[in-house]
């Protein structure tokens, strides 16, 4: 076409190509942002996604989340000795090792490291090691009482 004098088509082809490249970069940035958000969900929600979140994810995203979850679990088991190290336990560094908590619902007996068992009944308050009750706080069984 350039030899026959249709130079306006070359400009249009180049413009269209630049538009396609821009759209490709935008889609890749969008998908990367979604993966970062899915990765953050593992740290915030734990290893099980809420149904409301999972409903809005594609099958490939759910598969990526499961692979990331397994990879993180393998790494956590490999560090920290026999039991492994739960990196998701303390998202923010703790100010103290023990915290005061209130039980929001009946849970039953709860054993801490020294072998002491504590009965967690609704509205009871306890002074417990932070790392032992962090998961129960996330599950809504306990509530951290701020002094």
Automatic annotation (TrEMBL):
Gene3D superfamilies: 1.20.58.1030. Residues 95-146 form the DNA replication complex GINS protein PSF1 C-terminal domain. Pfam families: PSF1_C (PF24997), Sld5 (PF05916). Its main location: nucleus. Residues 10-79 form the GINS subunit domain. GO terms for biological process: DNA strand elongation involved in mitotic DNA replication. It is found in: Nucleus. One of its GO terms (cellular component) is GINS complex. Keywords: DNA replication, Nucleus. The keyword Nucleus applies. InterPro entries: GINS_A (IPR021151), GINS_bundle-like_dom_sf (IPR036224), GINS_Psf1 (IPR005339), PSF1_C (IPR056783). Required for correct functioning of the GINS complex, a complex that plays an essential role in the initiation of DNA replication, and progression of DNA replication forks. GINS complex seems to bind preferentially to single-stranded DNA. Belongs to the GINS1/PSF1 family. Component of the GINS complex. This is DNA replication complex GINS protein PSF1. It comes from Semnornis frantzii.
């Amino acid at each position: 076409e350039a030899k026959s004098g249709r130079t306006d088509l070359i400009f249009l082809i180049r413009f269209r190509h630049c538009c396609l490249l821009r759209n490709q970069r935008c889609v890749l940035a969008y998908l990367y942002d979604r993966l970062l958000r899915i990765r953050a969900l593992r740290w915030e929600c734990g290893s099980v996604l809420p149904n409301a979140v999972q409903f809005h994810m594609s099958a490939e995203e759910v598969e990526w989340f499961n692979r990331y979850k397994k990879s993180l679990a393998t790494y956590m088991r490999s560090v920290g000795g026999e039991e492994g190290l739960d990196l998701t336990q303390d998202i923010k560094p703790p100010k103290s090792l023990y915290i005061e908590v209130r039980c929001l619902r009946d849970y039953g007996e709860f054993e801490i490291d020294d072998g002491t068992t504590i009965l967690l009944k609704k509205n009871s308050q306890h002074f417990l090691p932070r790392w032992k009750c962090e998961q129960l706080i996330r599950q809504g069984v306990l509530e951290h009482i701020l002094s």
